[in-house]
Write a structure and sequence with these properties.
CATH architecture: 3-Layer(aba) Sandwich
Number of strands: 15
Helix content: 25-40%
Number of domains: 1
CATH superfamily: Ribokinase
Largest sheet: 9 strands, mixed
CATH class: Alpha Beta
Order of helices and strands: EEEHEHEEEEHEHEEHEHHEEEHHH
Radius of gyration: 17 Å
Distance between the termini: 48 Å
Strand content: 25-35%
Length: 298
Amino acid sequence: MISTTKHYDVIYTGNYTKDTIITPDGTRYVDGGGMNYAAHAGMRLGIKAAVVTRLAKEDAYVVENIQADGIDCYPIYSPYSTLMTLEYKTYDVDNRNLYVKNIAETIKPEHLDGLTAKAIAVSPSIRGEVEPEFFKKMRKRNGILLAADVQGFVRVLHGEALIYEVWDDMEIILPCLDILKSDAVEAKFLTGEDDIEKAAQRYASYGVKEIVLTHSEGVLIYADRKNFHYKFHSKSMDGRSGRGDTCLGSYVAKRLSLPPCEAGKWAAAATSMKVEKPGVFKHSIPEVEAYIARYYAN
């Protein structure tokens, strides 16, 4: 329990994942988790960020590393950390196989007691990591932006394999959200639409206000019944893992001060820059501003 109230711009929450990433270029071992990538993007873009996460005590060094980067981290220790393998058989970032050996326990509403924020961004990896009740209770907080990544609701663990399954709670959770992050594969599975604009509209029909929809070529922002398209301009895909998390983290951070169309430029720029190198986003605001001026001025 936190003794005094702590105030933040954005609280990023989700379980830490100990990742094995297999690509055509080889195998790497990475400290992952959507909240990790998202929070670093937000922090680098100038906001006061916090992380609430679950992991095993033996991985406490992850908490220390996050804090060393200037992000307050509130761990709730679990018997296990989530151990995930991400296998990319080709260079197509939208297609991968996911395997899980251990999973951390559920993040609950009371784990955010004593913390307030302008926005809460939820980045789970597996269904069950965050339950519908969490969103109902967070929605009762006055004046916050509430965002979530659909990946942690469509992915279901069967044995060690993560498989997409119908999301029965979609009609419960989406009306609670201001911002939904999805990729094109998830959108096709959940909405049945190949066209990403139509998929975004289907998501919005459930009550969520803004859609951040990534695909292999870029990101679509759907807000106020308008579509804003931004291409990615990455020179390599060496840091593909964490792409969507970085996109959501940067978008939520900039939505605190910018309209959707402008926040989308920052998200596209940050994501383009991040995927060129493994690990979390490490660029400065002037670097991102220069990137936006070069690629997204119009």
